[in-house]
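Why do we care about 3D structure at all? Because function follows from shape, and shape follows, mostly, from sequence. That is the central idea of this module. The next example makes it concrete: a single protein chain, its amino acid sequence, and then its structure expressed as C-alpha cells.
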Amino acid sequence: MRIPMKLEADRLPGISEEISYPPEALNQSLALVDCNNFYASCERVFNPKLKGQPIVVLSSNDACIIALSNEAKQFGIKVGEPLFEKRDIIKKNNIVVCSSNFNLYGDMSRRVMDLLSGFISDIEIYSIDEAFLNFSGCANLDKGKNITEYARTIRQTIQKWTGIPVSIGLARTKTLAKIASKLAKKSIKAKGVLNLINSPHLNRALEKVHVVDVWGVGTKSARKLIEKGIRNALQLRDASDNRIRHTMGINGLRIVYELRGISCHSLDNCTRPKKGILCSQSFGRKVTDIAELKQAITAFVSNAAERLRKQKSAARHLTVFMLTGFSEDKKAEKKQSVSIKLPTVTNLSSELIFQAMKAVEKIYQSGQSYKRAGVRFDDLVPSEQTQISLFDQAASAKTSRLMETVDILNDRLGSGSLRYATQGTIHPWKAKSEMVSPRYTTCWDELAEVLAS
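And the structure:
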C-alpha cells in the first residue's frame, strides 16, 4: 500500500508541496465509541422485559420509525418508514412500539459522555450516541496498559454504570475508527472492541465494507465510484489520487488518505454555538383556533429562547411559520411564514414572544386548518455583544436576571415548570406520544418503581 508523505499544493488547502504530514498525523491512536441501537437500548435499561424483544421507536406525533433494535431489523423494517405501512408486520410479530422519549435519551447520552470524559480528556462528542477519543499520550496507556484492554474496560464500565451497550473501533484515523466500530458491532469474536491499529487484518476488514458505508461517501458519490469498479473500502483506498480527485474532489482525497492511515480530520472538542435555532412540531390534530396557535408558538419560542440563552447567544431575526392542510395530497399543503428583524438583538423570552404573537396574527387565516408550526432564530451573535438602549439598561438587566432564574428553576424542576400565561395549561394541539415511556432520570414523579415481595 502506497502512503503519500507529501501532497501537491493545490490538493489540500493549507499544506504546501514541501511540507510533509507531522508525525502525529501518522501515529495517532483514535477510537469511536458508538452506542448500540441507542434509543432502543435506553428503553431497555429501565424495562428489562424488553431485552431480546424487537423494538421500534417513533418520531414526533408517532408518525415514522426513527430507530429500531436488531431484532426488529430482521423483519425488513427500515428507519424512515411510516408507521401505518408496517402495522401488519408489527402486529403479526409482536414488535414493541415506543414513542420517542428525548428527555430520557438526552440524559442517558450525557451520562455516557461524562463517563468517557473520565477515561480520556481529549474527546469529541460527535452525536447523541457517538464520540471520538484520542488515546495518543493517554497517561493510563503510558503506564503500559494495552490499548485494546483499556477500550474493553471503558466498554464494560459504560455497560455496568448506565446499562447501555457500546461498540468501540480503534484506528489511526476517524474514518478507519468508524469502520472498526461498525465491524465491532457485527463481529462475535471482537466482543464489542475491534483494533485496526497496525492490524494485519486491515485489508480484509476494508474489503468487507461497501463503499457507500464509508464515512463521508454519499449516495451520489458511491454510485459514481461503483460505475468505475470501486465497490468497497479497500478498492477506494488503493485507487489513484487522480481518479478519486476527478470523481469526488478534495473531500474524496481526504477520505482516501484517511483510509491509508493519514489523519486529515483532527478531533473537534470545542462546542461551537449554533448559527440558527429551530423549534417546530406537528400537531396531534387539526388546529383552526388562533388561541391554540398562539399557545403552541409561545411554547416553541420559550423552548428556543432557553436554548439560545444556554449557548450565550442572542438573535437578530425571528421567523414564524405554519403548514396548512391535512389531506393526503401533498400539493394541497401550503407553508406560510413571516420573518421579523427584531428591534433589538435579544434572547429574552418576553420580547421574542411579543414579536412572535404579532407574526401569528399576520399569518393566521380564519377557517384554515394547520398541521404544523414552528419558530426559528437566525443571525445569532454572542449575548455579551448585544447593544441595548441607553434608557432601557435597568429594565433589560432586571429581565435578564428573571430569565436566568426561570432557566435555573426549569432545569431543577423540569422543563416547562415555569411558563408564560399565553402558553396555557391544556395543550390539545400537542403531538401524539401514546406509547411514551416515563422520564425515569429527569422527572421526580416518573422515577422507576421497584416492588419487593
